[in-house]
Amino acid sequence: MIVTRPPMGWNSWNTFGPDISEEVVMRSADAMVENGLLAAGYEYLVIDDCWSKRVRGADGRLEADPEKFPHGMKYVADYVHSKGLKFGMYSCAGPLTCARYPGSFDHEFVDAATFAAWGVDYLKYDYCFHPSTRRGEDLYRRMGVALANCGRDIVFSGCSWGVEDTKQWMAGTGCHLWRSTGDIHDSWASIRSIAQAQLPDQIYGRINCFNDMDMLVVGMYGKGHAALTGCTDEEYRTHFSLWAFLSSPLMIGCDIRNMSEGARAILLNPEVIAINQDGAGRMAFRIYDGNAGWNDPAQSFVFGRLMENGDIAIGLFNLADGACCQHFAAENLGLAVGTGRTLVLHDVWSGEDTVMDNEIFQCDVPAHGCRVFRARVVER
Ligand code: GLA
Q1: Type and span of the H or E element at 139
Q2: Which fold has domain 285-379?
Q3: What is the distance in A from the centroid of ligand 1 to the CA of 164?
Q4: DSSP assignments along 179-221, one per residue
């Protein structure tokens, strides 16, 4: 199968960690529909680690923990599908998962068959306890080939955290997305460090093998398994805009059964989602920021992205602890002076339109903030 757009959905880990259950999953499925998340494009509901028994069954197959999932996993998958959602699960390239449940090493084909029989549509595949005698590339390819031959379309989500130069080999394993960073936590420091680590690796993202910057922490506000200090809505907006801009999958991690209005407004912003999901699938490029020597390039950057309909998405990001002034030039967006064209800058967060009447556009961006525009080319 070909995955042409970054997958969107919800994953259980950030909020629930090991405390996952049939009840949590089914009520989260309800919430995905009731909160408008499915309608906005969030279609995958993914159960992360800690869903199985501690040992395989006598037939060598993985079995759901009967205390957490008393009706078995097919029942849960059927419920998720009945809501119009797609169903995702989790395993690991090692003999154990990160939380020490059975992993798929040397069981790749039987596990792919089990997942297919349950109706799984998406598999997140972790890298803990992988045998050091095998190359990561070969371990991921084992599951890639098993899934491609299991008789069901299953999105393959590799999760080796970018280690061992994952970016060089992941596309050849059959993965449709690959974790390019370590685990996220609900703090501004975590968001910033993932974003910065991603800057040089951004170019490795592509259709059918998207860089995965990890699940979103938007709306956690310091609660849940991956919680730390929590963030402000301004910081969550910057986080969401960056993930969207850099074509990362948008996998929500907060408790969607109890979402705040602030989180809803961020996660459901259709224009930011549209940038992430744009059909051209072009990666972002860093817009030359001339001699903006007063800003630290590791904390302050401007991205552009060419959209399928001819628009240009422009994101000005300020990860620094103080406000800064950022700018971009029409020249660096394909609009040389003699073209007789300029841009109408539509701010996707405020809804305001501004005509760019100079060669250079400049604006203040608050600490930990961003400005994101969808720019339309017009006659001057
Ligand atoms: C690793 C992954 C996380 C999560 C946990 C589960 O740390 O990177 O995203 O899946 O394992 O144990």
Answers
A1: helix 136-148
A2: Immunoglobulin-like (2.60.40)
A3: 17
A4: E-S----BSHHHHHHHHHHHTTTGGG-BTTBEEE-----TT-T
What crossing angle do the helices spanning 108-118 and 73-82 adopt, rounded to 10°? 50
Cα of 125 to ligand 1 centre, how many Å? 9
Residues 235-246: tens digit of each pLDDT: 999 999 999 999
Contact residues of ligand 1, CB 6 A cut-off: 13, 48-49, 97-99, 126, 159, 161, 183
* Rounded-to-10 torsion of CA 16, 20, 24, 29: 90
pLDDT tens-digit series, residues 209-236: 999 999 999 999 999 999 999 999 999 9
- Looking up tokens 């525009």 gives 373
Which residues make beta-bridge pairs with 346? 353, 374
Q: Which residue CA neighbors atom 11 of ligand 1 most closely?
A: 98
**For ligand 1, atom 3: residue with the closest CA:** 183
Pocket test of ligand 1: the residue of 159, 212, 252 to mutate, having most ligand atoms within 8 Å of its CB, is 159
The answer to whether the beta carbons of residues 52 and 63 sit under 8 Å apart is yes
Contact 18, 49 (CB under 8 A): yes
Is 126 assigned a catalytic role? yes
Q: How many other C-beta atoms lie within 10 A of the C-beta of residue 181?
A: 20
Distance CA 120, CA 24 (A): 18
Query: Is residue 292 pLDDT above 70, yes or no?
Result: no
Spans of all domains in the chain: 8-276, 285-379
Which CATH homologous superfamily contains domain 8-276?
Aldolase class I (3.20.20.70)
Distance CA 33, CA 85 (A): 8
- Cα(237)–Cα(244) distance, integer angstroms: 10
Q: Are 344 and 353 in contact (CB under 8 A)?
A: yes
List CB contacts of 338: < 8 A, sequence separation 6 or more: none
Which among 48, 51, 96 is the best mutation to test ligand 1's pocket, defined by most ligand atoms within 8 Å of the CB? 48
